TrEMBL record:
The keyword Zinc applies. The lineage of its organism: Bacteria, Pseudomonadati, Pseudomonadota, Alphaproteobacteria, Hyphomicrobiales. Dihydroxyacetone phosphate binds at residues 198, 232-234, 274-277. This is Fructose-1,6-bisphosphate aldolase. It comes from the Bacteria. One of its GO terms (molecular function) is zinc ion binding. The gene is fba. PANTHER family: D-TAGATOSE-1,6-BISPHOSPHATE ALDOLASE, D-TAGATOSE-1,6-BISPHOSPHATE ALDOLASE SUBUNIT GATY-RELATED.
Length: 328
């Protein structure tokens, strides 16, 4: 069954849990996410980036989710547009039957630079009006995802925006967040607290200086009824990096967001936790291991089945760690 983001996160807030939002690009990810949800009795958020939509194609991606819905009838599924960049991306997602859209007006439409506040309010309000008219939920974003270690803000392509930004410029301001939510009527708000997309978030296990969970606490106190979203929330498990590097990979030492910190965030109002990189690492670890150990293997099912299993393990762990389990 399908569920809007608003319905799902209202339930999560009422019961004090968080929901991982896993990115989807293909069938193996869909099976992994839903099998894990079934085994843990968890509701699901599946999100598609613009890149995912063009990779799989809107038609196939939509039919894949429809298929998952039929195959897992007891699991509530919220299909969400990740990082919509303008009204048209969100409008097309709504036409395709998505339950929720993110209008990321924190960046200009081409992803080149952090946008100004007024642009963000205007474009996000436009999307909220359109989406709410047809019962679709909206996530907005305020603040610049980026590194408090380097001061580099993130552009949409994952590379640094020009210039070094201050702590104030990078982190979401609680008062501005309150004004933004009142002006735009978003159902959920993505906040910037020092995380960034991809595997290279921190050069060592993050402290409170570079991962500002205290800012989440302040924002939550200011707008307790707004569901908060953490982007860039992969934990970059060391075990996966080890497998990848043991079987021919060369990923340098790097750290993600520790699960305990996400759990603290959930205590302070974080309800949606975006995870893409961890699934990518799981796939890469599984595929590398099979292919490096069996040089004669060429049946894709022989490495994609382990890729499903490795992703499923990761999904199950997050459903349990975030308290999602048991809430389907
Ligand atoms: O926000 C970034 C997500 O990890 C999606 O990445 O745009 O490469 O599909 P992508
Ligand atoms: P990660 O790169 O940490 O998995 O973040 C994904 C994300 O925020 C998608 O919007
Ligand atoms: Na941003
Ligand atoms: Zn994101």
């Amino acid at each position: 069954a399908r569920i809007t983001l608003r319905q799902l996160l209202d339930h999560a807030a009422e019961h004090g849990y968080g929901v991982p939002a896993f990115n989807i690009n293909n069938m193996e990810q869909g099976i992994a996410i839903l099998e894990a949800a079934k085994e843990t009795d968890s509701p699901v958020i599946i999100q598609a980036s613009r890149g995912a939509r063009s990779y799989a194609g809107d038609l196939l991606l939509g039919k894949l989710v429809e298929g998952l819905e039929v195959q897992y009838p007891t699991i509530p599924i919220c299909m969400h547009q990740d990082h919509g960049n303008n009204e048209e991306t969100c409008a097309s997602a709504i036409r395709l039957g998505y339950d929720s859209v993110m209008m990321d007006g924190s960046l200009k439409a081409d992803g080149s630079t952090p946008a100004d506040y007024d642009y963000n309010v205007r474009i996000t309000s436009d999307v909220t009006r359109m989406a709410h008219y047809v019962g679709v939920s909206v996530e907005g974003e305020l603040g610049v995802l980026g590194s408090l270690e380097t001061g580099m803000g993130e552009k949409e392509d994952g590379h640094g925006a020009e210039g070094v930004l201050s702590r104030e410029q990078l982190l979401t301001d609680p008062d501005e967040a309150a004004r933004f939510v009142a002006a735009t009527k978003v159902d959920a708000l993505a906040v910037a607290i020092g995380t960034s997309h991809g595997a290279y978030k921190f050069t060592q296990k993050p402290t409170g200086e570079v991962l500002a969970i205290d800012v989440i606490e302040k924002i939550h106190k200011r707008i307790p009824d707004t569901h908060l979203v953490m982007h860039g929330s992969s934990s970059v498990p060391e075990e996966l990096l080890e497998i990848i590097n043991k079987y021919g990979g060369a990923i340098p030492e790097t750290y993600g967001v520790p699960v305990e910190e996400i759990q603290r965030g959930i205590r302070f109002g974080v309800r949606k936790v975006n995870i893409d990189t961890d699934l990518r690492l799981a796939v890469t670890a599984a595929v590398r291991k099979v292919l490096a150990s069996n040089a004669k293997e060429f049946d894709p099912r022989k490495f994609l089945k382990p890729a499903i299993e490795e992703q499923k393990k990761l999904c199950k762990a997050r459903y349990e760690q975030f308290g999602t389990a048991g809430n389907a």
